[in-house]
Write a structure and sequence with these properties.
Distance between the termini: 48 Å
Number of domains: 1
Order of helices and strands: HEHHEHHHHEE
Shape: globular
CATH superfamily: Ribonuclease T2-like
CATH topology: Ribonuclease Rh, Chain A
CATH architecture: Alpha-Beta Complex
Oligomer: single chain
Structural class: alpha+beta
Strand order of the largest sheet: 2-1-4-3
CATH class: Alpha Beta
Radius of gyration: 17 Å
Strand content: 5-15%
Number of helices: 7
Length: about 240
């Protein structure tokens, strides 16, 4: 089975997520600005040798925490002022089996306006798109269109629970994992990395896959199930 067919099969299974979603499903309206500050120059590869690609990581950023101290930052106004997101896509990353992940593997031409507008509600920053395409996409994809097309297919195939609805005297990383597991058929807990900042606030949820887009145990597992997690809900 060819890679595109494996991706479609994986997404078909993911899209049939469980109806048992105790934390709800994250939804948000998205406003795309009339003017977007586009990158103008290609990003160059680094000079470091890259390990072979062995896995993928779909990194979902918890936007309320990211925007908590950035609401007045002009560079992030599309995400933090014009919109009120739950999760956004941080990136689709290529990982290695051991050691540093492949990074900045080839020249990355600047992303165009049509591509940015097409995927803005998934990744609301042209500069972030350019960075992710340059740092990660060039290590596995022949074009920005192919990279973001694959990322969007995976993004659409994941049911993202609304973590703002999680309640409890003490929230844990295990509860976050459980919300994702219950919302997505076939997603094992060991394929979910829950990431916190040094103050204990949730920053990101990472879903780990092999090169055939099957869920696989994360090489970097993140917070342990019993670890306390604080979730900023905005405001």
């Amino acid at each position: 089975m060819r890679a595109p067919e494996r991706l479609l099969l994986a997404l078909c299974l993911a899209a049939c997520g469980s109806a048992d979603e105790p934390a709800g499903t994250a939804t948000a309206e998205c406003s795309i600005p009339s003017r977007i500050d586009l990158p103008r120059a290609a990003s160059l590869p680094d000079a470091k040798p890259d390990a072979p690609a062995a896995a993928y990581v779909l990194a979902l950023s918890w936007s309320p925490e990211f925007c908590r101290f950035r609401k007045d930052a002009a560079a992030h106004e599309g995400q933090c002022e014009d919109n009120d997101f739950d999760f956004i896509l941080h990136g689709l990353w290529v990982d290695s089996a051991a050691g540093p992940a492949p990074r900045a593997c080839a020249v990355a031409p600047p992303v165009g306006e049509a591509l940015v507008r097409q995927h803005y509600c998934m990744m609301p920053s042209a500069q972030l798109m350019q960075h992710q395409w340059a740092a990660h996409g060039t290590c596995a994809f022949s074009s920005a269109e192919a990279y973001f097309g694959a990322a969007k297919s995976l993004w659409d195939g994941v049911k993202r629970p609304d973590l703002r609805q999680l309640r409890g005297e003490t929230l844990t990383a295990g509860m976050v994992r459980e919300a994702f597991v219950k919302a997505n058929i076939g997603l094992p807990a060991e394929a979910i990395a829950v990431m916190e900042n040094n103050r204990g606030w949730l920053t990101e949820v990472r879903l780990c896959m092999d090169l055939d887009y099957n869920y696989a145990a994360c090489r970097t597992p993140g917070a342990a199930d019993g670890a306390r997690v604080l979730i900023w809900r905005g405001g």
